[in-house]
Amino acid sequence: MVDSPDAAPAVIPAAGSTPLNVELNALNTIPEGERRGRPATLFWPWFGANVSVLGLSYGSFLLGFGVSFWQATIVGLLGIVVSFLLCGFVSLAGKRGSAPTMVLSRAAFGIDGNRLSALLSWVLTVGWETILVATAVLSTGEVFRLLGWGGGTVTEVVALVVVVVLVIAAGVYGFDLIMRLQVWITVITGILTIVYFVLVLPHIDLRAVAALPAGDAAAVIGGFVFMMTGFGLGWVNAAADYSRYLPRRSSGPGIVFWTTFGGALAPAVLLLFGVLLAGSSQKLNAAVGAYSVGGLATIAPSWFLIPFLIVAVLGLIGGAALDIYSSGLALLSIGLRMPRYAAALVDGVVMTIGAVYIVFFAPSFFGAFENFLITLGVPIAAWAGVMLADILLRRRDYSETDLYEARGRYGRVNWLAIALVVGGTAIGWGLVALSGVGWTGYLLGAAKKSWGGANLGVLAALVIGFVGTLLNARRVRRQERHG
């Protein structure tokens, strides 16, 4: 097993054909005999991880920017599709190198320089695990309260234990279990979500929705960026982790399409319905802000509350399972020497501590959620810009040996790439103004109040990373001449 950035890739025995075997592959490239599937198989993990009814909550979150129904619909759909398209492009690297995303990015950042990328990726994925687990626990407590079964601290503690155990189990067993789990999650949550749509349809008030006032340019841009960071941009650092098992002959356009389509389909439908519901009721808006997914249960018939809870928790577990798998790989990429499944256990502990804070101590779910998305969205956007430009510039597959050798063609540290991420982050944080985070927005000056919520820093960081890397195209050409 390859857990060291300076070790040569090892051939790992196949994990087996059943999901009960713990996956042994870690940072190594996947041997040819284990590469299988077609690009279309990428639909299942991406759809299953994003079919969560949390997508309905984004309707309320997006209207919180002060935009109209049509503005919310347009920027919401654009944010979802564009952000998952970025995931599709990064997934191409998985086919070209058959290694995890945080190994493939060594080509852009250098073998040791990439530790910064891995640390950033680890913080982001663990953060998402924490948000999803906390949302599942809050939803359980709210549903139990609506049923008159308590819903207090004891209920939330029990729910926390159950959800954490399921998520960690998926992370420990690895790829095969996650892929099969996502198929079942897709089917179950898809059916029950449609039932929920039908049951709450009478709550939609089209007059109230049509009367929503339009927002200004800052509100529209802020909503667009929020949707990008809440969906595909939160996955871009892990996108190649699932395409790496595909054969090298797999269609590149097919990989981009199925990743984008699988990731964006459910959120697009859920967002549209969520905007209609949130625009129809201020009371529902407030409930979603307090309980996230749990707030959506307040308009469901009492007999459907348990099925609603099932679909909510399953969808959230599906997303958290992919996150804990990728966060374990990122932790190993930092340089920690331990088996992949042990890294998943470490992540599970951190995830649990974070979830406890959000559920039992954070004053506002949405406040903590928005600050998390934008704060980490800026540096990950800068990283994504570097990575996307690097992928665009390459004409050949990655050198498997050199991805693990500091003396190889990719070098030890690419200081320009690091400077682009650090500089892009510094500029980006200066162009966002987060509630309760006083040190942000330092570049906005007098425009901080009017433009601070536009989250321009995320877009600026993405452009800085992308353009800066394109301008250094000779580095990639020099690497490929050595092949």
Radius of gyration: 22 Å
Class inferred from helices and paired strands = mainly alpha
What order do the helices and strands follow? Answer: HHHHHHHHHHHHHHHHHHHHH
Shape: globular
What is the C-level CATH assignment of the domain at 61-370?
Mainly Alpha
Please give the share of residues in helix: 55-70%
Counting H and I runs of at least 4 residues, what is the number of helices? 21
Q: N-to-C terminal Cα separation, in Å?
A: 25 Å
CATH level-4 homologous superfamily of the domain at 61-370:
Hydantoin permease
Please state the average pLDDT score: 86
Low-confidence stretches: 1-19
How many E strands? 0
Key structural traits:
67% helix; 21 helices; globular; Hydantoin permease; disordered N terminus; mainly alpha; 483 residues
Description:
This protein starts with 42 loop residues before the first helix and ends with a helix. With 483 residues, it is mainly alpha-helical. Helix 1 (43-50) packs across helix 8 and helix 17 packs parallel to helix 20. It has helices at 43-50, 54-63, 69-97, 101-104, 106-109, 114-147, 153-173, 175-200, 206-210, 217-230, 240-243, 252-280, 282-291, 293-296, 305-334, 340-360, 365-393, 415-430, 448-451, 456-470, 473-481. The protein is globular, with a radius of gyration of 22 Å. 67% of the residues lie in helices and 0% in strands. The chain has 21 helices and no strands. It has a domain at 61-370: Orthogonal Bundle (Hydantoin permease). Residues 1-19 have low confidence and may be disordered.
